[in-house]
TrEMBL record:
Record NCBIfam families: PRK02391.1 (NF002669)
Domain Peptidase M48: 78-295
GO biological process: proteolysis
Protein's UniProt name: Protease HtpX homolog
EC number: 3.4.24.-
TM segment ranges: 21-38, 44-61, 154-179, 191-214
Cofactors demanded by this protein: Zn(2+)
Cofactor: binding details: Binds 1 zinc ion per subunit.
Active site per database record: E145
C-alpha cells in the first residue's frame, strides 16, 4: 500500500503553481523541439536523441550533480550527531522517511535539499550554518528544507530548469558556430536557421521567469510549512535574520562560488535590493519572509 502523506501542511497554491509551470514548460519544450525539427529536417533523429537524452540525464542525475557541485558529503550519525538528531526529530514530527544527510565544507551559512523523491532525497547543511545556529534555529532551517522534499517541488524545479538549460546551450552554439553561414540568406531553411538563436533566447527568458516565480513562492511555502510543523516560527525567523546578517561578512569570492546554486539554497548568496533585481531573484525578500512568520506566530499564539 502507498505511504500516507506527510504531516506537512498541504499547499494548494504551490501545487497549482507547479502544475501550471510544468504545463507551460512542456508547451515551450514541444514548440522548441518542433522549431528545431522544422529547421533541421534531415537531422531529426539526432535532435530527438540529443534532447531526449539530455532530458533523461537532467531528471536522473541533476540532483547528484548539484549536490556534488555544492560540495555535499554524506555523513553518518557518529560523524554528525547534532545534524542527524535534528533531522530525526523532524522526520518523526512529519511522519516522513529519513533522507540522506550531508555536510558541505563551506563557511557560507546555508542548507539545501535535492532529490527526485523522498527515497532519493538528500538534505545538506554547510559547516558555516552548523557553527552559527542554535539547535532550535537549525531545526527550523532543516524543517524548511524537508518541506521541499515533502511537497516535491525540488523535483519540479529540476525538470522545469531543463528547457532553459537546453535553450541556453542552443543559443550559445548558434551564436558561436554561426548557423546562418551554413545556408544562403534567401533560402527559407536558412531564414529559419537564423531564427533559432532568437527563438532559443525567448524560450530561455520565459522558462527563466517561470522557474523564478515558482522558486520565490516555494520558499515562502517552505517557511510556512516548517513554522506550522515545528510550532516555532520565531526560531526560523531568528535563523533567517542571523544567516542574512552573516552573509554580509562572507568574502565576495566565496559568495560568487555559491551564487549559481541560489535556487537550491535556504538563503541566496546575494539578495536583490532593486525592484528589477527582485523580479529575477530566486527568493522572496527577507522582509517578506519575516512578515509571513510574524503573522503565523500571531495566529499560533491565539
Amino acid at each position: 500500500m502507498p505511504r500516507a502523506r506527510s504531516r506537512y501542511a498541504p499547499d494548494r497554491g504551490l501545487t497549482g503553481r507547479m502544475v501550471t509551470t510544468m504545463f507551460l514548460i512542456g508547451l515551450l519544450y514541444v514548440v522548441f523541439v518542433g522549431v528545431l525539427l522544422a529547421a533541421l529536417r534531415g537531422s531529426w533523429p539526432i535532435i530527438l536523441i540529443i534532447t531526449g537524452g539530455m532530458f533523461i540525464a537532467q531528471f536522473w542525475f541533476s540532483d547528484r550533480i548539484a549536490a556534488y557541485g555544492m560540495g555535499a558529503r554524506e555523513v553518518t550519525p557518529e560523524q554528525a550527531p547534532e545534524l542527524h538528531g535534528a533531522i530525526d526529530r523532524i522526520c518523526a514530527l512529519a511522519d516522513m522517511p529519513k533522507p540522506k544527510v550531508a555536510i558541505a565544507e563551506s563557511d557560507v551559512p546555508n542548507a539545501f535539499a535535492t532529490g527526485r523523491s523522498e527515497k532519493t532525497a538528500l538534505v545538506c547543511a554547510t559547516t558555516g550554518l552548523l557553527r552559527r545556529l542554535e539547535p532550535e534555529e537549525l531545526e527550523g532551517v532543516l524543517a524548511h528544507e524537508m518541506s521541499h522534499v515533502a511537497h516535491r517541488d525540488v523535483a519540479v524545479m529540476t525538470i522545469a530548469s531543463f528547457l532553459g538549460v537546453l535553450a541556453g546551450i542552443i543559443t550559445r552554439i548558434a551564436l558561436w558556430g554561426g548557423f546562418a553561414r551554413s545556408r544562403p540568406g534567401n533560402d527559407p531553411a536558412g531564414i529559419l536557421l537564423l531564427l533559432i538563436p532568437l527563438i532559443s533566447a525567448v524560450v530561455y527568458a520565459i522558462s527563466f521567469l517561470l522557474t523564478r516565480l515558482l522558486s520565490r513562492y516555494r520558499e515562502l511555502s517552505a517557511d510556512r510549512a516548517a513554522a506550522l510543523l515545528t510550532g516555532r516560527p520565531s526560531a526560523l525567523a531568528s535563523a533567517l535574520t542571523k544567516v542574512s546578517g552573516q552573509m554580509a561578512r562572507i568574502p565576495t569570492e566565496d559568495l560568487r562560488k555559491a551564487e549559481p546554486y541560489n535556487a537550491f539554497y535556504f538563503m541566496p548568496a546575494f539578495s536583490a535590493k532593486e525592484s528589477m533585481g527582485r523580479l529575477f531573484s530566486s527568493h522572496p525578500t527577507l522582509e517578506q519572509r519575516l512578515d509571513q512568520l510574524s503573522r503565523i506566530s500571531t495566529d499560533l499564539s491565539r
